[in-house]
Design brief:
By secondary structure, the chain is an alpha/beta fold. Helix content is 30%, strand content 28%. Strands 3, 5, 6, 7, 8, 9, 10, 17 and 18 form a nine-stranded mixed beta sheet that branches. The chain has a six-stranded parallel beta sheet with strand order 13-12-11-14-15-16, with helices on both faces. Strands 2-1-4 form a three-stranded antiparallel beta sheet. Strand 8 and strand 9 form a beta hairpin.
Length: 361
């Protein structure tokens, strides 16, 4: 292929997506060019776009001030190399753009991977700058296949969320409410809290009426409640709200019911990205955005380098082997199919069982 195909998204209007083709040029000294074989598309990528300005996700693969490339997790093969440490044909796993190719500047190269040292990425969260070299990885990772891109980034967040709650003794709460409970990060957290709890607490899933049956079928929640029934929640127990939805209406409904008994309000995602994010006056804890790299960095200091990431990856494998059985993987080819998949994900039309693997090449 002599050109790069990109799916660009309007940064201030995520429903505007366009396919752009540009020439594919050779790598500069020290760089590699890799063809992106396939990547996962999940609600997590919508959250990347929604928080693209505040967290910096648009900065990983910059286009211009108006359009951006949404980061995704996937697999790639090096097709051209001007870096002596990385050979043509090497297969990689990591953080890529929604595109057919990517240009990387490998540094800190080891047998297991390297860090992209591109100047525009140096001040961004380092967690996303590390790429794995697949050839030398243990069999368990090699055998994970699509689940690694579809589930491990989400379940890694699930693990670090559970660790964050444990690290803070669940803020004194006796129950954890999880909004957008059908999302993969949500049910990964429920798995951690019910299957591998340090301290057991009641776990309640909040979801749309259309996803009630699926969420209950997971068998991971003590109770599953539709958003319109939040007013019927027991109001006598202190709670933590872990909010994957980003919906001000959901947050407000929980606060109206529980008030000061909401001891922490942990904002994680934005599956309801267009639902209106500002609630009215709250009696309980104000929402605070959870930034996974910050908790990983804390555990790096607590436990030593690499320990938290290893534990998160090991837990992701366990969750994927169990709850991941609910997933139906769908492979989609081509830029037009990717654009439709993006718009479906934005509109909430993607079934919770679906795991989308896309290729623009």
């Amino acid at each position: 292929m002599s050109s790069i195909v990109q799916l660009q998204v309007q940064r201030r209007d995520l429903k505007q997506a366009r396919v752009v083709t540009t020439p594919l040029t050779p790598p500069a000294p020290g760089e590699v060019v890799a063809a992106i074989d396939r990547f996962a598309l999940t609600a997590n990528n919508v959250s990347y776009a929604v928080t693209g300005e505040s967290i910096g996700y648009w900065g990983y693969f910059p286009v211009d001030a108006d359009w951006g490339l949404v980061p995704v997790w996937g697999f790639a093969t090096v097709t051209a190399s001007a870096c002596p440490d990385i050979a043509v044909g090497e297969r990689l796993y990591g953080f890529f753009p929604m595109a057919s190719h990517v240009r990387l500047a490998p540094g800190k190269v080891s047998g297991s991977g390297f860090t992209d040292m591109a100047a525009h990425r140096r001040d961004l969260p380092a967690l996303y700058n590390r790429y794995s070299r697949l050839a030398g990885e243990p069999p368990a990772l090699a055998e994970a296949g699509d689940a690694r891109a579809l589930l491990f980034p989400l379940f890694g967040t699930s693990w670090v969320l559970a660790d964050y709650l444990d690290d803070n003794a669940a803020f004194g709460a006796s129950q954890v409410l999880i909004a957008s409970a059908s999302s993969k990060t949500a049910f990964g957290l429920a798995w951690m809290l019910t299957r591998e709890p340090t301290v057991r607490r009641r776990v309640v899933g909040l979801t749309s009426a259309g996803n009630l049956d699926f969420t209950r079928s997971l068998g991971l929640y003590d109770e599953v409640v539709a958003y319109e029934d939040i007013a019927g929640l027991p109001a006598d127990a202190p709670a933590v709200l872990v909010d994957m939805s980003g919906s001000g209406a959901v947050l407000q409904a929980v606060d109206d019911r529980l008030g000061e008994r909401v001891k922490a309000n942990v904002l994680v995602g934005a599956t309801h990205w267009d639902a209106g994010r500002r609630p009215g006056a709250l009696k309980g804890a104000a929402p605070a955005f959870f930034f996974a790299p910050a908790q990983f960095a804390k555990r790096e200091a607590d436990w030593g380098p690499g320990v938290a990431l290893r534990r998160a990856m090991e837990a992701s494998g366990r969750i994927a082997a169990d709850a991941g059985a609910q997933l139906e993987v769908r492979h989609l080819q081509g830029a037009d199919a990717a654009r439709e998949a993006w718009l479906d994900m934005l509109a909430g039309r993607t079934p919770p069982r679906a795991g989308l693997m896309l290729s623009l090449g």
